[in-house]
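In response to the reviewer comment on reproducibility (Comment 2.3), we provide here a single inverse folding case reported in full, input and output, so that an independent group could reproduce the run without further information from us. The structure tokens appear first.
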């Protein structure tokens, strides 16, 4: 099991609701969360088999941006 953390522009509950179907399809309902209180809006994904690019693609599919933490 590995953890992927990405900086996003998912900044409110409405945004989380919009990205939920895409992330649930890719990651699974229990495999991710967004910390909208963090200034970088950190998306944390716990996965066995996904890589960072696949998670970014799922976020972008929902109309949001995600990038590696710097």
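Designed residues, in position order:
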């Amino acid at each position: 099991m590995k953890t992927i953390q990405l900086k996003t522009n998912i900044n409110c509950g409405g945004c989380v609701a919009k990205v939920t179907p895409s992330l649930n399809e890719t990651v699974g309902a229990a495999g991710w969360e967004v910390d909208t209180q963090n200034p970088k809006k950190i998306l944390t994904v716990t996965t066995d088999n996904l890589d960072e690019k696949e998670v970014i693609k799922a976020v972008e599919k929902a109309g949001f941006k995600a990038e590696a933490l710097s």
